[in-house]
């Protein structure tokens, strides 16, 4: 395919440009007879939307979801769910300056190289706005996973070099950066505001913990559960890396240290991060993604225009100085999509 | 699918268990009229095979490839290439002890949980032996990529905590660990031998550099080039993480530091690792994978048997104390498969 | 997938129920830089819409298309086209009577068996209304095929046992049944009106002729061009059979009669219908589909309700006594979708 | 994909040329824990093999199957089954004469147009020999379907214009043409032998009846059960058409005649052929395929060579004057593959 679909038995297809008329998603393969409504989905949309705090862009996208198909009398029917969000408050004027220049860190150059044409307004299809459809679809998957006893929780563990020292799950949604350590959160927010004032941006690390997945989920050899989760996460624009369990640290460990032993109660450790041989072990699935600093900064940067002439550019407009807090619900959504898909694939294999 | 196929327009499907009669691969979507023979493929097989040095298992797999279809008078015909390797020198006796126990770090437990049955001999389908088919198919992709002016080179940058300080490409195939720094290689080998004597194992980091990819390759939004490369690499058993360009280090950088500027000559840096917005920039594509320590160690480990009773286990048999040198050709093969597939998808989109 | 997507490199995904809020389609894999607008698509929608003549239902669906993404300044950008049609003039009251009974010939029973729940309003997802999205997407494919010099034309050749004796292509759109023989059309219309008055319906045969396809299009062995066309046509609700070239008549011919010979000018006959070995010959691709009589009739019929109790039912509401004239544009749309997809796949194979 | 795979959750990929070293198939998505062996598969292979009677080619292909993976101690493990048949008794000399000429009715011309190169020996990949892998995989699907209580039976109903008047299921495998009417079989065989002596060939019609499929199998809207069966059957080289239930005859029926009513006992007729709205009704699934006369005849035919020069050609070698009896097991195999795939997809949807 051309790349706008994800999943196999639980499959989503997204559409829409940042400053087009709407963005949205078709969700195919939804189990019938499940109660779900727009309010349930809206909860996740609101976690992703801009303007939530001092550290997110004041831009208002009005992420109000409408379900136009697949629901009858409050229940899913097994036919495709279509979810749409109409765009509003688009100030294309903000972007006119960059119509003919390539913003450093953005996909302006690569899109033009690939397609020979691009909708530059608000980054068009390459905008983070595209993830709105993912989060809406992810909420549908989350609802199905709830029926399976699976929960998915992501949170910031590091921003601008400041790391969380504690894991206080109940505090995650209580601070603007969705950090698992409220003390670290305070320093992270201060750092972000300082950088925002300087016209700069920073990155961070987001961790995701998936609980309640029975052993046996995942399809060897290519569609390993961690392989599909890796693809899902790297398909998020700002993500530059992923690791599972001990991850990169495993490269410096000994087999005698890294191997997860077992006793009558189950695994005695979880260095593997809940997946061995591409199949869930029954333990928590733990992954971390590296989030790059937001590309849009107002500091002057060296670039060229579409004619190849050098120029400096300042990315005006309203942007997130750190995207971590808004990536958290996107990471959760992608994890939900992968898990629900693999649960259905396991059912097909066993049938 | 059930997970044994990879790729879309250039697609491989593998089969085979470690101690079954054979392993192999069907390669579909091969450009017709390309000259390729078994000798060309064998070169890559020999880089993957065991018994290459003191730091690899002495086990002989006789990785001799036979092409049984898709070639006529030395050229590809556009029909599926079928490549098979018959298994030999299988000492299933070595594995009888672990028929009823779960080896720590291995997929014994998860396979049994998933399928309710498993071929324990030599780890069955979960064995690294499965990658033989990938390397054979990857060689076919490599040949097609040569015609596109693309080269793919992987090498070890760290083993057991010992890091390469220099990048000497011509030295990679000259040392047993395929390290890019011959001095570091000497210390890595000593470390591996020391651990092997102790019945332990270690991990490392393998980097892959892809040169010559024109700008515009990769399919947003889900099939980003880095997303598909991430899936490809995480589908390799021992890989626990991946990063592109500055990777995890980007999480501590500022936007003003990380953004790759441009001048009349092109990009002035490559922090992105050759991919922006999921599409190739034209610069080198650079990725690194975290390789966990080999699970098979002869030190006693705590585990349970299939009846849930606790026991200690020593994984006997012949194993690699560090898998990095043999993962290098597998990483290259997977990268070749992803690239060739995306070149074909770009052609379809433009058509 | 769950079955709501079609195509591989040119791929559509449809959504929507007959009496839901909207129906529509996402078209992925559209060649960038192509000029297309809503007016071009509307022409095909108007050929499919109800209320075109005395032989089609007076129901008004207001098939007005809106393109909400994938177009920038009048040209395709290579990102997904999203096309939506909002539903209006829905008289669900018409259907309340059949909420708890299974209409003979309709998918009421099978949908309930499959999903355990159904949206009975206007047949929900099983309604012919679903084909609106196909026709809209087919128009996009048609535009791309125009650039390839390919034309697709379907027409009625038989209705209610009345057959066309002549082929007058310029007359097809000039009569209410889209027959290629205007004299036969007069008799067909009279027959349909007679049956409509009697509360009954009839079927017919629609032929499709595809011109300008170069030799070499089609992917052996499973994705043969005729195999994919057959799937495409049988995915249309009322179609019960398909044949290519001489079709079923070939079963009574001799090899010496059926084989298409060649001379310096090319093939001397086209019994194969333009496809041999699943690959286009360069000749016209000719196929015929069998259209069953419309299931909705107002004559009393024997059926059971959802409790299994026997009852008679009259399908009230506004229906087409013969669906052939409105299936013509759907057949063309599906043919366009298959062709464009295979042109792109051929480009990928050759790349 | 390039077209050599079929199915989604139960997926096969075939390889091999007629005069290459082997043909075979990888079967992915096999339910684990099922007892199956080569002898079970061989039964179906023997029904497809040449040399079974006076009306089939004396060519011996030695269709002996070997399963090289996916089985452990007599049971499937859930990993890919690999089944191979090595080619023998290849008389390429028979074909040297047609290396540079296009045989009427064969894919010689279209393959060369598509790929720019072709393996002409025994028709290469376009040979009926390719179906050996399908029949082997179909046998695996048949075994899984047995556990579901589903049976698939195909038989000849017409050859050379001679039609079966009776349906005697127990007689199908008792006559050389696999006709359901032994009296008609006698005349069919005489007709075939007469045509063979004259150096000509003939076609026929094969019907397939699938029993025991529960209601609810099939995936609207594009992957309707009949749509996928149509693709499966049209992917068989000699098939030129397909119809379900009343099929083309439905085009001349009235709605009041064609609609299948229901009473307390279920459907009172089966004009639909067991599928409504693309979903199984629970009744027998009945389809018929049109088989063209064998292309290979020894009568002189007009053609051109690869240089475009006109010439006459006689297709020497050993061929089937009528392929119907050998297509019967292929039709059954394809039906089994579609059904097993859809059963697994239904399980995924419901999960």
Automatic annotation (TrEMBL), chains A, B, C, D:
<keyword id="KW-0288">FMN</keyword>
<protein>
    <recommendedName>
        <fullName>Chorismate synthase</fullName>
        <ecNumber>4.2.3.5</ecNumber>
    </recommendedName>
</protein>
<keyword id="KW-0521">NADP</keyword>
<comment type="subunit">
    <text>Homotetramer.</text>
</comment>
<keyword id="KW-0057">Aromatic amino acid biosynthesis</keyword>
<comment type="similarity">
    <text>Belongs to the chorismate synthase family.</text>
</comment>
<dbReference type="GO" id="GO:0004107">
    <property type="term" value="F:chorismate synthase activity"/>
</dbReference>
<feature type="binding site">
    <location>
        <position position="48"/>
    </location>
    <ligand>
        <name>NADP(+)</name>
    </ligand>
</feature>
<feature type="binding site">
    <location>
        <position position="318"/>
    </location>
    <ligand>
        <name>FMN</name>
    </ligand>
</feature>
<comment type="function">
    <text>This reaction introduces a second double bond into the aromatic ring system.</text>
</comment>
<dbReference type="GO" id="GO:0009073">
    <property type="term" value="P:aromatic amino acid family biosynthetic process"/>
</dbReference>
<dbReference type="Pfam" id="PF01264">
    <property type="entry name" value="Chorismate_synt"/>
</dbReference>
<keyword id="KW-0285">Flavoprotein</keyword>
<keyword id="KW-0028">Amino-acid biosynthesis</keyword>
<dbReference type="GO" id="GO:0009423">
    <property type="term" value="P:chorismate biosynthetic process"/>
</dbReference>
<keyword id="KW-0274">FAD</keyword>
<dbReference type="GO" id="GO:0010181">
    <property type="term" value="F:FMN binding"/>
</dbReference>
<dbReference type="InterPro" id="IPR020541">
    <property type="entry name" value="Chorismate_synthase_CS"/>
</dbReference>
<dbReference type="InterPro" id="IPR000453">
    <property type="entry name" value="Chorismate_synth"/>
</dbReference>
<feature type="binding site">
    <location>
        <begin position="292"/>
        <end position="296"/>
    </location>
    <ligand>
        <name>FMN</name>
    </ligand>
</feature>
<dbReference type="GO" id="GO:0005829">
    <property type="term" value="C:cytosol"/>
</dbReference>
<feature type="binding site">
    <location>
        <begin position="125"/>
        <end position="127"/>
    </location>
    <ligand>
        <name>FMN</name>
    </ligand>
</feature>
<comment type="pathway">
    <text>Metabolic intermediate biosynthesis; chorismate biosynthesis; chorismate from D-erythrose 4-phosphate and phosphoenolpyruvate: step 7/7.</text>
</comment>
<dbReference type="GO" id="GO:0008652">
    <property type="term" value="P:amino acid biosynthetic process"/>
</dbReference>
<feature type="binding site">
    <location>
        <position position="277"/>
    </location>
    <ligand>
        <name>FMN</name>
    </ligand>
</feature>
<keyword id="KW-0456">Lyase</keyword>
<dbReference type="InterPro" id="IPR035904">
    <property type="entry name" value="Chorismate_synth_AroC_sf"/>
</dbReference>
């Amino acid at each position: 395919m051309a790349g706008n679909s994800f999943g196999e038995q639980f499959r989503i297809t997204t559409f829409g440009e940042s400053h087009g008329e709407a963005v949205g998603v078709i969700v195919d393969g939804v189990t019938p007879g499940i109660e779900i409504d727009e309010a349930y989905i809206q909860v996740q949309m609101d976690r992703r939307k801009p303007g939530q705090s001092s550290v997110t862009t004041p831009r208002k996208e009005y992420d109000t979801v409408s379900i136009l198909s697949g629901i009858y009398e409050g229940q899913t029917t097994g036919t495709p769910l279509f979810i749409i969000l109409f765009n509003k408050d688009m100030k294309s004027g903000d972007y006119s300056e960059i119509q003919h220049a390539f913003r450093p860190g953005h996909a302006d150059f690569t899109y033009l190289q690939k397609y020979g044409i691009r909708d530059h307004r608000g980054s068009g299809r390459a905008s983070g706005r595209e993830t709105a459809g993912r989060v809406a679809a992810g909420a549908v998957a989350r609802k199905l996973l709830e029926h399976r006893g699976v929960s998915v929780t992501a949170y910031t563990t590091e921003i601008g070099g400041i790391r969380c020292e504690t894991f206080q799950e109940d505090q995650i949604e209580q601070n603007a950066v969705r950090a698992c350590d409220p003390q670290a959160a305070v320093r992270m927010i201060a750092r972000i505001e300082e950088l925002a004032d300087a016209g700069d941006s920073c990155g961070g690390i987001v961790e995701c913990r998936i609980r309640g997945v029975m052993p046996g989920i995942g399809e060897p050899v290519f569609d390993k559960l961690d392989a599909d989760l890796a693809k899902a996460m790297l398909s998020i624009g700002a993500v530059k890396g992923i690791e599972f369990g001990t991850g990169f640290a495993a490269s410096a460990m000994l087999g005698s240290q890294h191997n997860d032993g077992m006793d009558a109660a189950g695994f005695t450790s979880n260095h593997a991060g809940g997946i061995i041989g591409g199949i869930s072990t029954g333990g928590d699935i733990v992954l971390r993604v590296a989030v790059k600093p937001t590309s849009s900064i107002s500091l002057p940067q060296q670039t060229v225009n579409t004619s190849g002439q050098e120029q400096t550019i300042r990315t005006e407009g309203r942007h997130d100085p750190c995207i971590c807090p808004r990536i958290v619900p996107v990471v959760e959504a992608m994890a939900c999509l992968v898990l629900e898909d693999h649960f259905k694939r396991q059912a097909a294999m066993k049938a």
